[in-house]
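Chain A, query sequence.
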Amino acid sequence: MNNRLLILLCCMIFLLSGCWDETDIEERGFVIGTAIDLAEDEDVKDNPMLKMTNQFVVPAGIGLPTGAGSEQEAFTNLSATGESFFEIIRTMSTTVGRAPYFEHLKLIVVSADVARQPDLFGGIMDLFLRDPEMRREIRVIISEEEAQSILEIKPETENLPIMYITNVMENTSKSAGLIEPVRMGEIHEYLLESQNYVIPKVSSSDDKVFFNGGAVFNGDSNRVVGLINGEEAAGLNFVKGKSIGGYIKIEVDNKLMVYELKKLKSNIEINTEDPDNITIDITIDTEGNIAEMFGQRSLLDKDYLSEIEQKINEKIERIANNTIQKAQEDIKLDFFGFSEILKRKHYDTWNEIKENWDQGDNIFANSTIKVKADAIVRTTGATDRVKDQGSE
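Chain A, predicted structure.
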């Protein structure tokens, strides 16, 4: 009996062969950020030459305090060029001591020049989505400048530029003009549905990054067709009811006042009785408090409070209408998601007009869109008024 058990155990040993693709951790080059640019090589006619820059973690520099003056950096950026990223990654593997390992990738920065090329952005995302090492939580942003330069900043507060950038990006609740971070998994859904979308736009200066507005993508061509600034991004957030923070500056009696947003929701109703003249009514409801004011009138005065709320409504409506105007007259693309509402609530009408919604006859550009805001000041802070400078 014991002999049989021994033979069985010996046979099982051959089944426990371990991982066939096992790689020692010391042999891996951990990539936490990737930048994608067009290469300067003009020789390739059929496909554009691409440049990939990867930010590798250098473990020896991680524990050093920021700004310690050590020559040992916590990261290194390496670049390679080629027609395909599979080729670039393989080339990079033969020129560095450790093969690139992307399982800890946190951020992909794509230059606007790359994103403007038809279908190129979709092809890039396809590569990352197919790779089993990649996670759907990876953030994607668009750079107005060379994407590589974003990875080369040296922030004062972090050893790793990518960690600094992702921390800044998460502060969308601090400003209504910031686009929410977009994950690769979300982009995958947009690509599958040929849906228009907006990705956060970044720039850099003096070793700092600034998120302001976004890049608008056409879902059919998978390329950037326009850019929106911070205020236009705020208008987009108001229309979609997405911004959960930020503030609005207004003037009442020629005095500055700051309204801090605490709650925001929008309701969109689409009238399709006349398919050639779609009417869209948008109601934007906000709640917030007065965070800052310069003046001596009491906020307990109901008439004064109503005047403040009316000023806030006018500001929100103006910002939202400006974004809508840019979408209809300049970009000529529905990036608000109206098409998804039509598809969900007016399916028969959508089937009739979908080929001409924001292409062909461009019904979207000729639609009547009305915005109405309803702001409520819930709290006025610890005090209801302050004195003007120089008053008794």
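The chain has two domains: 26-228, 230-392. The radius of gyration is 26 Å.
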